[in-house]
Design goal:
The chain contains six helices and eight strands, in the order H-E-E-E-E-E-H-H-E-E-H-H-E-H. The chain has 202 residues and is an alpha+beta fold. The strands form two sheets. Strands 1-2-5-6-8-7 form a six-stranded mixed beta sheet. A two-stranded antiparallel sheet has the order 3-4. Strand 3 and strand 4 form a beta hairpin. The protein is globular. The chain starts with a helix and ends in a 20-residue tail after the last helix.
Length: 202
């Protein structure tokens, strides 16, 4: 019961957060692993793919679909199978994300970034990863992910103990130009559309 209550409160907070920060689905044919929002960057200056991001620059913030992640954490029984499934979902989402970010009204946005624990092997997709420079944010994010992991997965505590490096959040970033180079937008490509019922139980 406590776990169900926590999940209910967390889901409510997710909906409020999405509304306040204008977080949008990358496509209506989802669900996909990512949501996206246009924001002004408020962190430390960084560079990715030759593009410098300074405070107050407009960027795309990538947010995780936590409902889908919870489903995966419940379904998979090992750290390896979780990592493989998450990477599969990320790859499946990229064509839809490409169609979203390629819209002409977003030409002023140069960089896409997010903070996530899904950061292993993302370099193969053209992304770069950086440690979170703000210790408080890094600590809070790690604590949140571990608590969520334990709540939704009966083996969560043991997996964290055996693989403490699994839930280490990092900044993941890529320039919009590089992303569109890696995943050219094709509005006629529906080959990656998978019915929602195959990913999140009703």
């Amino acid at each position: 019961m406590p776990g169900s209550l926590i999940q209910s409160l967390w889901s409510t907070w997710e909906r409020i957060f999405h509304r306040l920060w204008h977080v949008q689905p990358i496509s209506d044919d989802g669900p996909y692993l990512f949501y996206i929002s246009e924001q002004r960057y408020l962190g430390h200056k960084f560079e990715v793919d030759g593009v410098t991001v300074s405070r107050f620059d407009k960027v795309f913030e990538l947010h995780m679909n936590n409902e889908l992640i919870v489903h995966i954490l419940r379904e998979q029984k090992s750290a390896v199978s979780i990592a493989v499934r998450l990477l599969q979902e990320a790859k499946r989402a990229f064509p839809a994300m490409s169609r979203f970010v390629s819209k002409p009204e977003y030409d002023h946005i140069k960089v896409m970034y997010g903070v996530t624990f899904i950061n292993r092997s993302v370099e193969r997709f053209g992304f770069h990863t950086f440690p979170i420079r703000r210790r408080l944010l890094a600590g809070m994010t790690t604590w949140y992910l571990k608590k969520l992991f334990v709540i939704v997965n009966p083996l969560g505590a043991k997996l964290i103990q055996d693989h403490p490096e699994t839930l280490v959040p990092r900044v993941v970033a890529i320039s919009r130009a590089r992303f569109l180079e890696e995943f050219p937008a094709d509005t006629s490509d529906e080959s990656n559309v998978v019915p929602a019922s195959e990913h999140v139980p009703s």
